[in-house]
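U., I forgot to send this yesterday:
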Amino acid sequence: MGGSKNKSPAQKEKAQQKKDAEQKKGKKSKSEDSKTEISVLIDESQALKYIKSANVITAHDLARNTSVKISTANSFLQKSL
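Result:
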């Protein structure tokens, strides 16, 4: 009927270090969880020029043509609607 054997001191120390590392990672992600405002500006004249000439408008195409991040292009499209 044996139960689990006791861990050696070295194994206990390694397990404790892993737990400490996981706790540090968890705390770090919680502090960075808040969303930041998109600060990259998009050239509106260039974006509007693309929007008028395109048959289908996607955030990816707009981002590629205006050389900004996709999230910036997406927020611009949402604001312009």
